[in-house]
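Example 9 (inverse folding). The structure is encoded as follows.
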């Protein structure tokens, strides 16, 4: 039985661009939710967005404080203003990747040798055609940032916001939709906070783009468990079955 079978009275379906209904293949969302960056013209209703967020709100968070806030970006001017602000970040990302390095790594923080502006990106270039764009923020007053003073890259605070983001993608996948989470906007918060009406003491966590994928991924490539799991110590024997 599907792990999702008890969460909704009916099995989700999706519509083609012509409006005809078709069943969503029975796939385990944990194994089939890949990144979708290009979408069909099928619209996604406010009711569908509400249902996705209604699922995602059950994500775990520290102390169950649920720090998330969501802005559904519908006005074309707002969408364009936000993604245009992220364009330089995307250009840097592409340039650093082209150097064979991890973008924005705190270990190797060197800038790219050369940056060309205007690198193609379907989400930025055609954001007006993306069915759903969500801006996700977190109320930092509600987050226990356990490692904020650790002297290394803090990670713990994300545990209270990114499970919610992932739950959005899982719920969308269950409904025959797809999408992708990007964090470029976190580098330009000061340029878009007023545009988005970001409340005081809130930080942007991501933009999430949703729609019916132009091409549906049914099999993802991931490392096997034994590659990243060891017994007792991180340098211990691999957990292989």
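The amino acid assigned to each position is listed next.
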């Amino acid at each position: 039985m599907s792990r999702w079978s008890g969460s909704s009275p009916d099995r989700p379906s999706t519509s083609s661009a012509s409006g005809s209904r078709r069943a969503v293949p029975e796939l385990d969302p944990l194994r089939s939710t890949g990144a979708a960056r290009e979408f069909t013209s099928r619209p996604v209703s406010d009711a569908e967005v509400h249902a996705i967020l209604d699922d995602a709100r059950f994500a775990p968070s520290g102390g169950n404080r649920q720090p998330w806030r969501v802005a559904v970006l519908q006005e074309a001017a707002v969408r364009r203003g936000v993604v245009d602000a992220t364009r330089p970040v995307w250009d840097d990302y592409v340039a650093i990747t082209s150097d064979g390095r991890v973008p924005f790594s705190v270990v190797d923080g060197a800038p790219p040798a050369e940056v060309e502006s205007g690198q193609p990106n379907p989400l930025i270039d055609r954001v007006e055609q993306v069915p759903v764009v969500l801006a996700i923020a977190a109320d930092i007053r509600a987050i226990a940032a356990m490692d904020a003073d650790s002297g290394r890259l803090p990670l713990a605070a994300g545990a209270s916001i990114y499970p919610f983001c992932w739950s959005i993608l899982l719920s969308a996948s269950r409904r025959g939709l797809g999408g992708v989470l990007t964090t470029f906007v976190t580098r330009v918060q000061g340029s878009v906070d007023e545009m988005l009406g970001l409340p005081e003491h809130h930080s942007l966590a991501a933009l999430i783009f949703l729609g019916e994928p132009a091409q549906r991924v049914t099999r993802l490539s991931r490392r096997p468990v034994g590659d990243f799991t060891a017994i007792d110590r991180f340098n211990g024997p691999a957990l292989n079955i």
